[in-house]
Amino acid sequence: MLTIRENLSSLGQKTLELIRYTGAITILVVDVVKVMFRRPYRFRQTIKQMRMIGTESLPIVSLISFFTGMVLALQSAYQMQKISAEMYIASLVALSVCRELGPVLTALIVAGRCGASITAELGTMRVTEQIDALETLGTNPLNYLVIPRFWALLISVPILTVYADIVGMLGGYVIGVYKLHITHHMYVRMTWDPLRHRDLFVGLVKSLAFAIIICLIACYEGINTKEGAEGVGKATTASVVRSFILIIAADCLLTAIFYFIGKV
Amino acid sequence: MIEIINLCKTFNGKKVLDNLNLTINKGETTVIIGRSGGGKSVLMKHIVGLLTPDSGQVLINGEDITRMNEKELRAVRMKIGMLFQGAALFDSMSVGENVAFALTEHTSTPRAVVDERVKKCLAHVGLTNIERLKPAELSGGMRKRVGLARAICMQPEIILYDEPTTGVDPIMGDAVNELIIELHDKLKVTSIAVTHDMVSAYKIASKIAMLYEGKIIMVGTPEEIQNTKNPIVKQFVTGAATGPITDTTSLKDMF
């Protein structure tokens, strides 16, 4: 059995690790801000990354958002039918998807699909000394590897989020109109009526914050990969797990800020 | 000329370089020998500015690269070519793009001139018509040669070789040695190689330096190293399992 001393020592070590990690991410943020507007601008690489992050994520984002919209409509129908308020299902789906599920689900998909891939790619480049080679060839790895991914995520994730919102609402529409027999006209009206610009704004602000989290964690874990193939595996797992935790934590924080302070 | 003065580097409490001093004259080929994990690659990475020392200086043509900002360091790096142990070719690019990387990245040289330079560099290392291949399609020896072609593309004054013969068969190893000598003679560069392959060291070196416990304990010509009375250097170059090196680090503890 572990003694109290050992437990305290382990707790202390974990706390120190957390502080070190936070410090390292903060330094990365400062470095990224320093070079993000600096030449050379790497449009080609940014477009290539946008294709990988945005276009290639479309099928899975469509599938998950559509099903989520359907599930949301069905689950709310279960309650709403009891009080004969089925027509509010459309509003509930629209608001939930735009403010919460669209941004969060899209970010989790991108973190799992693209964040992991970014970490594995940069991690392999680290352990095979390709990042060192970049530096010896006079190229700043941050500018060459991180910035194009940063811009690509910052642009792609909000676009994917809006797309996920639309597909999610479509999923709700399919259940509402074809299963619950709400009329097309009523469903569309009840979807648009409660939606305000601020709902879309909240979702977009969240998606931007999530994009920054995914990029920072994925790139940090990749660039700091250690110990060969095993290290790449560990870094990729750490990247996905940490991104997921931070996305959910940031979502909670932002929702609280919008609710209590911004009243939006 | 490269001067390394009182260089110290510690990793996780372990002193890897301990007040290391070494001078490498222009046009010489200096081979740094030492045990695996003894700090040879760490020393190499300090010379090209990939690592920052805890203390000490690395002077290249009189300028201390440890105090340089990014822009100044980039200018110095343009004068240095480096061959990595595993060649470190960029997987996502073709051989041609790898060799031309620095040229296309830092200059606006016309495409035709770049292609011509790539062909010339590849020819220097004995390769032709492989510009379109991907690094994954090459053998270990070819990868090293392409890595070398990339290192010489910007016509550097200094070339660093990290374990140039590791990971290739003895015949290819000797071909790499011949290539290093040929490049040295043709391009008149200053070369630094780190290795524990003594056959390679004797063949390519004009000077050999032995790194032991973070310090350079002996510098001499290949003949001087071969006939040394220093028991540590003697044990290393003869490859004896017993001697002062293994007495202190104790091989028995390792098994």
Name some characteristics of this structure:
heterodimer; A: 264 residues; mainly alpha; 84% helix; B: 255 residues; alpha/beta; Rossmann fold; 2 domains; six-stranded mixed beta sheet; four-stranded antiparallel beta sheet; 24% strand; globular; disordered C terminus
Helix content range of chain A: over 70%
Overall 3D shape of chain B: globular
| Strand content range of chain B | 15-25%
| Uncertain spans of chain B | 250-255
Tell me the span between the first and last alpha carbons of chain A: 51 Å
Largest pleated sheet of chain B: 6 strands, mixed
How many domain regions of chain B? Answer: 2
H/I helix tally of chain B:
11
* Principal-axes shape call of chain A: globular
Give the class-level CATH name of the largest domain in chain B.
Answer: Alpha Beta
Order of helices and strands of chain A: HHHHHHHHH
Oligomer: heterodimer
Helix and strand element order of chain B: EEEHEEHEHHHEHEHEEHHHH
Q: Which class of secondary structure composition applies to the elements of chain A? A: mainly alpha
What is Rg of chain B?
A: 19 Å
Give your account of this protein's structure:
The complex is a heterodimer of chains A (264) and B (255). Chain A is mainly alpha-helical. Chain A has one domain (41-262). Chain A is 84% helix and 0% strand. Chain A contains nine helices and no strands. Chain A has helices at residues 4-35, 43-53, 58-80, 89-127, 130-136, 141-179, 184-192, 197-223, 228-262. In chain A, helix 4 packs antiparallel against helix 9 (228-262). The longest helix of chain A is centred in the middle third of the chain and has 39 residues, at 89-127. With 255 residues, chain B is α/β, with parallel strands linked by helices. Chain B has two domains: 1-78 and 157-166 and 183-255, Rossmann fold, CATH 3.40.50.300; 80-155, no CATH class. Chain B has helices at 40-47, 70-77, 95-106, 111-124, 140-152, 170-187, 198-204, 222-226, 231-238, 244-249, 251-254; strands at 2-11, 14-24, 29-33, 55-60, 63-64, 80-83, 158-162, 190-195, 207-212, 215-220. In chain B, the strands form two sheets. In chain B, strands 6-7-8-3-9-10 form a six-stranded mixed sheet, with helices on both faces. In chain B, strands 2-1-4-5 form a four-stranded antiparallel sheet, covered by helices on one side. In chain B, helix 3 packs across helix 4 (111-124), helix 3 (95-106) packs parallel to helix 5 and helix 4 crosses helix 5 (140-152). Chain A binds chain B through residues 40, 124-125, 128-130, 132-140, and chain B through 45, 48-50, 70, 74, 77-78, 80-82, 84-86, 88-91, 101-102, 105-106, 150.
